[in-house]
C-alpha cells in the first residue's frame, strides 16, 4: 500500500524546547527525544513528534543544537542505512529565517527535491543529523562522536490507521559512520 502524504515540518531554532503536545506522546502522536533517556525540554537536546491529520503527516521538531549557518535533517530509512532514502531538512542561513526542504540521499549525495515525494507505508529507522552551512550551502554532517547522526534502534511505523504509529522511540544510538 502506498500512502500519498504531504509533510509539514515545523522546525525552530530555540534555546529552550517547547514542542507542543508532548503530553500526547504514545497516544495521539509518536515522539522521539534525544539523547537517550531524556524526558522533557529541561534535559532533551532535540525533540520530534508526528501525527496524521487526514492524508497528511504532521512532523514537529525542535532542537537546541542548531544555530545560524547550520542545517538539520530527519531521515527515513527502510534498511537502517542512509542511502536511497527520504530526508526532511531545515536550513538556517546566517541571516533571515530558516527554510524547509524535502531531499533524497543517494549513496554519496543529498539532493533537494522539487516535487512531492511518495512514501510507502511500512517501518522506518529514523536518523537525526545536523551540520554547518558555508555561503548558503550545506556541508556534510560529522561522522564520529557527538556530531555523528543519531539513529533509532527500533523502527517506526507511519500508518494513518495503525496504533503503532503513535509509538515512542525510546532507544537511539549515535553511530560512528565510516566514509564511503
UniProtKB/TrEMBL annotation:
Residues 71-131 form the DOMON domain. It comes from the Eukaryota. Residues 1-16 form the signal peptide. Keywords: Signal. Coiled coil: none annotated. This is DOMON domain-containing protein. The lineage of its organism: Eukaryota, Metazoa, Ecdysozoa, Nematoda, Chromadorea.
